[in-house]
Design brief:
six-stranded parallel sheet; five-stranded parallel sheet; 11 strands; 15% strand
């Protein structure tokens, strides 16, 4: 082959790629930045990144997952990322038993959790197995990012963030995809260098405890947790004498979602509800004991007799009460209408026989 032909082809491809990358920056800069932020926020709060694609895009998925699990530029702790293209037993068994269209979907359903990120790579945007996986990810509450080319195909209408390389040639799209992925990885490294990946909500919390928030901070906490697509569970009570019944209820409540926020009646509120001889322990002590429990993520004290105002601020997905409040014959639940109006639901937790705070206090007083 003539040297001039060889050199001309190499130069033309390099120039085409350089011009295309300039177009990508002009057209996709906001989307790339948004994708990096989604990935960083997910990793910051314990999420993981799932990559998948076919052919060359499968290689890109494996490449980018390796940059996070291993290292990119910064020598840092490994970060959780999985390429769904590398487990041949998964790919062949799912392809054989369910069809190739489901090879990524079933893995997403098995491994994906709310707060994770799914990054779908497809130069055409028309790969049914990739698109099915994105649909499954969205149904599970994952954030979804698409790296595509050309018109973006059907994928452009499925993902939350679409980064569409304006190229008709598959190789040029793939070259840009890896450059985009590298930019995201470098921004992740930058976040690590700035200690941003370590969850630091101290500005929202009482400095005496990593888990205690004030009423004024509750709305911001709810907004942040919802932006991360966490299922927020709320429960509340006086918790005047913490006992195994409380622990069982709190553990059951936490199992319903991702984050458990517990409201505690203030001393004045408890006196209004229980009488002048209560509480036994101060609000400060009751909050500190609850904050020490592994199943409790956040604790907030409130002055009102009911938690309606707290629920309006936090907007939990689930609010828990004891089974004695369950309809149709249970005690009134003033906050139920508020919870449901905000799109949440009530859950009624079973009681542990033999554990009642009032009965325990009376038994101790008789001794």
């Amino acid at each position: 082959m003539d040297d001039k032909v060889v050199w001309s082809l190499i130069r033309r491809n390099a120039e085409d790629l350089a011009n295309l990358q300039i177009s990508v920056i002009e057209q996709c800069l906001a989307e790339i930045a948004a994708a990096a932020k989604v990935v960083i926020d997910s990793l910051r709060f314990g999420g993981k990144v799932l990559f998948f694609g076919n052919g060359g895009s499968a290689a890109d998925a494996q490449h980018l997952a390796g940059e996070l699990v291993g290292r990119f530029i910064l020598n840092r702790e490994p970060l959780p990322a999985i390429a769904l293209t590398t487990n041949t037993s998964n790919l062949t068994s799912i392809g054989n038993d369910y069809g190739y269209d489901q090879v990524f979907e079933r893995q997403v359903r098995a491994l994906g959790r709310k707060g994770d990120v799914a990054i779908a790579i497809s130069t055409s945007g028309r790969s049914s197995n990739v698109n099915n996986a994105v649909r499954a990810a969205k149904a599970l509450g994952l954030s979804t990012i698409a790296l595509t080319g050309g018109t973006g195909g059907d994928l452009r209408n499925l993902a939350d963030i679409n980064i569409i390389v304006p190229a008709d040639k598959t190789p040029r799209s793939q070259e840009c995809h890896i450059a985009i992925g590298h930019s995201i990885c470098e921004l992740v490294d930058l976040a690590v260098a700035e200690n941003y990946l370590r969850p630091n909500l101290s500005e929202m919390r009482d400095p005496s405890s990593n888990q205690i928030v004030s009423i004024d901070q509750l709305s911001e906490l709810g907004t942040r947790l919802h932006s991360l697509q966490r299922t927020v569970v709320w429960t509340n009570g006086c918790f005047d004498m913490l006992h195994p019944g409380h622990l069982s209820s709190l553990q059951t409540a936490k199992a319903l979602g991702d984050v458990l926020v517990v409201g505690v009646n203030s001393d004045e509120s408890v006196r209004g509800l229980k009488g002048s001889d209560r509480p036994i322990f101060s609000e400060r002590d009751r909050i500190a004991m609850l904050a020490a429990l592994e199943c409790v993520d956040y604790v907030v004290g409130f002055d009102e007799p009911t938690p309606v105002h707290c629920i309006e601020l936090l907007r939990p997905s689930i609010s828990c009460k004891g089974v004695e409040y369950a309809p149709p014959d249970g005690k009134p639940v003033p906050e139920a209408l508020v919870v449901e109006a905000l799109g949440g639901r009530m859950a009624y937790l079973p009681l542990v026989s033999g554990f009642s705070t009032t009965a325990l206090i009376e038994r101790i007083a008789k001794q």
